[in-house]
Design a protein that fits this description.
Helices cover 68% and strands 0% of the residues. It contains 5 helices and no strands. The protein is elongated. The protein starts with a helix and ends in a 10-residue tail after the last helix.
Length: 112
């Protein structure tokens, strides 16, 4: 409780000291210059972005890596679309086809 009272006294003391402060004065064009500076920071051109990429090689390397990954993905999708269609045959059908091709219908006689 005692600590809370001390904190409250400090806060009151600080607020009373602010009563005698005068408002800060600026020249007539201060706010116009401030607003112009803030607006110039917001308007970043495309050229500024590309220039920053060339200034920092790590950003350029990162951007090129992303472009390369996107290119490889698009190329893979395009190549996947051009794959030939496979027959939907089962293993049994393949075995039967192989058996018909390699085993003649004629009986084979073995000499004992």
């Amino acid at each position: 409780m005692n600590k809370d009272k001390e904190i409250e006294k400090e806060v009151d003391k600080t607020l009373r000291s602010l009563d005698h402060i005068k408002k800060a004065k600026t020249d007539a064009y201060f706010y116009a210059r401030l607003e112009e500076r803030l607006n110039s920071r917001d308007a970043i051109s495309t050229w500024d972005i590309w220039a920053s990429l060339w200034k920092e090689p790590r950003y350029l390397l990162g951007a090129l890596s992303v472009v390369l990954i996107i290119f490889v993905n698009v190329y893979s999708v395009i190549q996947y679309d051009h794959l030939p269609e496979w027959d939907s045959t089962t293993n049994e059908e393949v075995e039967n086809t192989l058996a018909e091709e390699y085993v003649p219908d004629l009986p084979i006689l073995y000499n004992d």
